[in-house]
Amino acid sequence: MSGTAICRIDFEPSEGKELAYPDKNQVIILNVSDWSEKATLICNEVSAPYSIVQYSPCGKFIIATSLEGDFVVWEVGTQEVANVSKHTKSIAICGLMWNPKGNGEIVYTDVEGQLGIITESVKGMTNDGPEQMNTDEMELADNDVDFTGVNFEEDNDEDNENAVSLEQLKKQYNLGEPDDELQKLETASSRSPTPRPRTPQVPLQPSFMPSSTPEHLDPRYLCWNDVGVIRCYGNNSDESTSKSIEVEFHDTTFHSSMMMQNYQDYTLGSISKSALVVANSSQINVIPLAASSKEWSLKVEENEEITLVAASENLICFAMANYIIRVALVYGSQRGVISVPGPIVSMASFKNFLMVAYHTSGKLNSPDLQPIIIVLTYFFLNAIFIGFFILNNITPGINCI
């Protein structure tokens, strides 16, 4: 269910001693100190229930809008209606705001998304607020001094009784130069606030392939498991050296060794009894080990980056830097897409199971630990089952590679 009225309330802006809220076709003002009812504002020309009330920036006026597009402005002190107007379509208003300059302008939006402006909502309001003078100002205006005939001299002639020195007046009343005072105000206003202390950045464990060796080694192992070994020759930082990938199987009766040129600078690799997988940051290449199957490859979008790969008897999985894991069958058909809530650390696959380790937020009572969640996912027919969770904590800055 949804209400028809917004019922937006507002505090008096200067000191917050009053709170106004709409109640049917009237506006109630409460005294915040004891929450007693201070005043009730009513307009006889409006019968529709009010929805929004808001004080003017000076706090001396308050406006309310009804569900039929009525705008009513009261003077809070006298509780008299200062202005009444109506929307041209007589539709409800969903938002309004006084101009902070205090010039009487009001900006509003209706339920149809149209923007409107009310000008001169209160007569006598200028950029400095309502044009009202207090008693002292009125007396000062009535007792203005006539300086006609007074000789204003630029030099400081103390002997001349009719000479008025501006410099002497400045010294007497401690008045500085206008340019100096303006420069002080600009300097004070431009002074930036005290910066907040920066939250220390905890170094996270980077993603890594299980059983792989660091990239700076030559040769290096991309993968070593119970099926075979993937070995990479040629350092990626040296473009002059030839690069190749060698695959050796522990059981030579299952498959003979393989050698391939590494023109694509593959740095990731995984092997199972069904497929050989190699990849770089933008492309994955899968070679099914069955004799009748064809090799296939896939390039990801420009804004995506491959960080991890895993191969099993039934699945080909590759993780992205945007926390997305794509799962495909050995022959290239997409099996599913998984999103994890943190940077992926590592993953491994076995038959229809995929195990993923990723970072999660730290505990409030353990700021010196770096939590890592391990999740087991099971793919069965057209369904995906997420299994148990394991929470591990490691010391920040520790590298598991």
Write up what this structure looks like.
By secondary structure, this protein is mostly beta strands. The chain folds into two domains: 10-130, YVTN repeat-like/Quinoprotein amine dehydrogenase (Methylamine Dehydrogenase, Chain H, 7 Propeller), CATH 2.130.10.10; 220-394, Methylamine Dehydrogenase, Chain H (7 Propeller), CATH 2.130.10. 7% of the residues lie in helices and 42% in strands. It contains three helices and 31 strands. It has helices at residues 135-142, 166-172, 178-190, and strands at 10-11, 18-23, 26-31, 36-42, 50-55, 61-66, 70-75, 80-86, 93-98, 106-110, 115-118, 125-126, 129-130, 151-152, 163-164, 220-224, 228-233, 244-249, 258-261, 268-271, 275-279, 283-288, 296-299, 306-311, 315-320, 324-329, 334-339, 344-350, 353-359, 370-380, 383-394. The strands form nine sheets. Strands 1-2-3-4 form a four-stranded antiparallel beta sheet, with no helix packed on it. The chain is elongated, with a radius of gyration of 39 Å. The relative contact order is 0.06. Residues 207-365 form the WDHD1/CFT4 second beta-propeller domain. Pfam families: Mcl1_mid, WD40_WDHD1_1st. InterPro entries: WD40/YVTN_repeat-like_dom_sf, WD40_WDHD1_1st, WDHD1/CFT4_beta-prop_2nd. Residues 202-214 have a biased composition (Polar residues). One of its GO terms (molecular function) is chromatin binding.
